[in-house]
Amino acid sequence: SAPGRFADYFVICGLDTETGLEPDELSGENFEQTPLRRTFKSKVLARYPENVEWNPFDQDAVGMLCMPKGLAFKTQADSREPQFHSFIITREDGSRTFGFSLTFFEEVTSKQICSAMQTLYHMHNAEYDILRTPPTNDKDSCSSTGDCNGTSVSKLQRFNSYDISRDTLYVSKCICLITPMSFMKACKKVLEQLHQAVTSPQPPPLPLESYIYNILYEVPLPPAGRSLKFSGVYGPIICQRPSTSELPLFDFPVKEVFELLGVENVVQLFTCALLEFQILLYSQ
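== DEN5A protein ==
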C-alpha cells in the first residue's frame, strides 16, 4: 500500500539532444509552418525515483501530458513566460494520479540543434521561393491554382526569424510533480520556487537535490481534516486536506472558470450537468 507521501515522482521533460529534432506526429503535419512554429517530439529526460511500487510510472502518458503541444522553439524576440497546467491519469481500475507541470524556456546550447534549425529554415525558404515563382504558361496555368500566387503560397510564408549567427535559440522544458492527491496550489508553488532557484543568479540556500528529496521522501500527505506546512526553496508552503464529512478536495480557483467562460456559459454547463447531458470542452 502507498505510504502516504505528498508526491511520488519528480519528472523532467524536454529536448533529447541525442535524437535531435523529431516532428511531433500527434500534432499533425505542420510543415507549411515556419520551423519555429512547428512542434517537435518531447521526451522524459529524467524521473526521481525510478519507480514506486504503489504508483507505476507511465512514461508515455506522463511525457504526452506534461508537454501536450510537444517542444516549442523561440528566439530572444519572443515572449518566454513560464506556463503552468495540471492533468489527471486515470487507470483501468479507476484509480487516479495527478500531475502538475511548469513549462519554461531555456537556451539551446547544442550546436547540432541550432544547425538543424538553421537547415530547416534554409529548406523552408527554398520551398517558399519555388512556390512563389510564377508559372511560365499562359493564364490557364494561373486559373488551375486559383490565382497566379497559388493558394499554397499563402500557406507557406517566408520568415527569416532565425539566423544562427545573430539569434539566440530557446526551447521549452518542463518540470513536473506526480502526486496521489490534487494539491494544485502547493505543487505550483514548489515548481515555481524550483524554477526560480534555477534561473536566479544567486544559488539557493541548499542544493536543489535536497529540496526534491524532501518533497518526495520526507513530506507526508496531511491527514484528513488537517493542514500541512513544509519548507520550499524560498518560503513555506501550506496545503489543506478536507475531512471525510466535507466536500472532496478541489484546489482550483473557480474564479478562473467564470473569467474564461463567462457567467452565461457556466450556468449553461451547470444546467447540462444536472440534466446529465454529454459535455465536450474543446480548447486550443
